[in-house]
Amino acid sequence: MEELHFVYINANGRIGVHSIQSISYSENHIQGICKNTDRIKTFRKDRILKQYDSPEQAIQECASFLPENYSHLTKQSGPKKNTFDVCFTGFKKADKERLVDKANEQGLTVRTSVTQSLQMLCCGYNAGPSKVSAARMKGTIIIDETGFIHFLETGEIPDE
């Protein structure tokens, strides 16, 4: 059975020795059963610092790897891009397409369902109760087409 022994740096910059067996490979990852925990673990290929013939070799050389030399592998991606998410429901197809186009022109993110990050649900004449209820439960702003157009033009959410 194939075994792999290597020094690895995780996303938090911790360097350690790993030994796995029953290995499978994908484009960017290696997965196998950890010999210490007997559990499946997945590793990014680009974070494997060096492979060894034995776990003893890997343990011996592990201390020579300094996390600061590999910060390019551990840098977290920048903060998540803030988006303003809107969903349209209860509109005829042509009306919905027109509203989606207006939202996209303003840089809004259009969702097709009520998501956790949805900020606004724009309801047409035929809005179903399930989407409206789900949006209300999440604290989403519920608005009609006139209110949405006003919001796009002024940035204000109408009181009425």
TrEMBL record:
Pfam families, alphabetized: BRCT
Protein name: BRCT domain-containing protein
The BRCT domain, residue ranges: 84-149
Top-rank lineage group of the source organism: Bacteria
